[in-house]
Write a structure and sequence with these properties.
Chain lengths: 313, 262
């Protein structure tokens, strides 16, 4: 008897969304099967990797990744242009770090100007991220959403403590929105319900269940993402069908393995290889758990992940 | 679990009057309300409809599906009327469900219709003569119906076995037998047979204010045993809340604080 490959099919489907403008616009999600199991269903879009940049020089990034951008990171427009021209970035994630009260406390108006400058100069689809300060993000992201009006960006992150104003701004300026909760699938579902109850279309939503680095809680993130995907596909739970975000870079480029020098830990080998591998493995794990959109920092790690996606698609 | 909304029934005065007057509005409103409340099928009970049954069922199906894009459960003993309903049914939103065949010879024709029109079919485990005494007797009848369905060419996955729910106020033991039947029916086939109940029969005859409580507790017990579908009242909020909560406990729905609002 010939071997028949067992196949699982699901009633549910991951929602797809696009962001960006014109022929640069990109789409994510849309699959009705678990990650990369294209023999079981449809996988219309490949996972997307966005290059992370900041609105100020990345003084707190470890040297391995900071040095890559040392000639361009003084100015976000230059940095974004480098990502487009040299790295061929399909999307860029601009983090408004300097708006954080402890990191410069720049105003929402300043942030809006930065957004306008970047959007005017670089036509790559843009993800606009706050500084992850609940109160400040509520001001900054509202101004940023207005500044980016008409550019079909992704803005984030809306959290339990600030989602109302951010959702209203994303709604008013027709952006996509990242909803973030802290490593708890039930809270992730609850936040998505609350956001859609405000009249925000679930087809414009992205779920960020919070990332973590290899060795620092990756298995929790992996498990939550996997269960979100299964709830969306197997239980056909509409609140769990938005695409998933893995905000990998910021969780990787601070752990000991990406920072500790070779003289300090000679057994760990080359710092550069080690830290690039750390981001690569963390991001690849997220892909296998069901992530549709990754935010990453090191070009070599991004290259590794793109190669893996090529092989798995 | 599949919810079959029970509100459109010839027994209800408002529905009966609308049927007689061929006034689509009350019927359409009931269909829309049940659909919005979470019904997956809308039951269309026109009774025996001995006069103009054919025309009535066709009119009902078309009137309802004009407003509600869901499959219908065609509920009549009149095979001619049923066939008219199956012909009129828009299968774009799912296969129709026939309510019902049984082990009585005059109901065999329903299986023939199910095969001919590629419809789902409810099978009441009721034979000629007295009511089945217990779950074992119901399984015996179910096996006979299943064999007959196979002869007619109705796939087992299109058949919903109904243990026949009786009134708790007069036949208390039967409530337990029906729960056991739901469990045992599933074991009659691999993959397991599907099951369905007419839920509100259990509370027939009890004081009105107790009906919802009795329905929802009974539904919970049946769901625990793996019930696949229930003909019930989706407009009963407390019943629907119990249904959603049971789904959380059974792991069919992911918990979130607002799960009742979904």
């Amino acid at each position: 008897m010939a071997y028949v490959v067992p196949k699982e099919s699901f009633n549910g489907k991951v929602l797809s969304l696009d962001f960006g403008k014109g022929d640069k616009a990109v789409s994510i999600g849309g699959e009705n099967t678990l990650p990369f199991l294209s023999f079981e269903g449809e996988v219309p879009n490949r996972p997307l990797v966005a290059c992370e940049i900041q609105d100020c020089p990345p003084d707190d990034w470890p040297d391995t990744v900071k040095n890559v951008y040392k000639d361009v990171s003084a100015d976000p427009v230059t940095w974004a242009g480098y990502c487009r021209d040299e790295l061929k970035a399909k999307a860029i994630a601009l983090r408004l770090v300097s708006t954080h009260p402890d990191r410069g406390d720049r105003s929402a108006e300043d942030a809006a100007k930065t957004i306008k400058d970047v959007l005017a100069a670089v036509d790559v689809p843009l993800i606009i991220l706050g500084s992850n300060h609940i109160e400040k993000d509520a001001d900054v992201l509202v101004a940023a959403a207005g500044a980016a009006s008409g550019y079909n960006c992704i803005i984030g992150k809306a959290q339990e403590g600030n989602y109302k104003t951010i959702v209203a701004a994303a709604l008013a300026h027709n952006h996509k929105l990242i909803a973030m909760s802290e490593l708890d699938i039930n809270l992730a579902k609850q936040l998505n319900i609350l956001i859609t109850q405000m009249g925000f279309d679930k087809e414009k939503l992205i779920t960020d269940p919070m990332c973590s680095g290899l060795g620092y809680g990756l298995e929790y993130t992996y498990s939550v993402m996997e269960r979100i995907r299964l709830a969306g596909l197997a239980q056909n739970d509409p609140t769990m069908q938005p695409p998933i975000l893995g905000d990998v870079g910021m969780y990787v480029w601070k752990v000991k393995e990406t920072v500790a020098s070779e003289p300090d830990v000679p057994d760990w080998g080359s710092l550069e290889n080690r830290s690039i591998a750390w981001e690569t493995i963390t991001a690849t794990s997220m892909l296998l758990a069901g992530t549709n959109l990754l935010i990453m920092r090191h070009p070599a790690a991004i290259g590794n992940v793109e190669k893996t996606i090529d092989e798995l698609m | 679990m599949i919810i079959i909304g029970e509100k459109i029934s010839v027994i209800a005065k408002k529905v009966r009057e609308a049927m007689n007057a061929r006034d689509p509005k009350p019927v359409q409103e009931l269909a829309e309300a049940q659909w919005k409340a979470g019904a997956n099928f809308i039951d269309v009970n026109i009774g025996p409809a001995e006069e103009n049954g054919e025309d009535l069922m066709k009119w009902m199906v078309e009137s309802i599906q004009e407003k509600v894009h869901s499959p219908l459960c065609l509920d009549t003993t009149n095979a001619v009327a049923l066939e008219a309903g199956l012909k009129a049914h828009n299968n774009e939103w799912g296969k129709p469900l026939i309510n019902s065949t049984s082990n009585e010879p005059d109901r065999f024709v329903m299986l023939e219709m199910a095969a001919k029109y590629n419809a789902l079919c409810i099978a009441l485990t009721l034979g000629k003569g007295s009511l089945p005494a217990d779950a074992e007797e119901r399984c015996g009848i179910a096996a006979e119906i299943m064999a007959r369905a196979a002869e007619f060419g109705v796939p087992m996955e299109d058949l919903f076995l109904d243990p026949l729910i009786l009134q708790v106020c007069t036949m208390q033991d039967q409530a337990r037998h029906a729960i056991k039947s739901v469990k045992m029916f599933q074991e009659l086939n691999d993959p397991p047979m599907k099951t369905v109940v007419g839920l509100s029969n259990v509370s027939n005859g009890v004081p009105k204010e107790m009906r919802s409580l009795i329905d929802r507790v009974y539904l919970t017990l049946l769901m625990y045993e793996g019930l696949s579908a229930a003909i019930m009242n989706p407009l009963d909020k407390e019943l629907m809340d119990a249904f959603k909560t049971t789904d959380v406990f059974l792991g069919n729905t992911l918990y979130a604080h607002s799960y009742l609002e979904m």
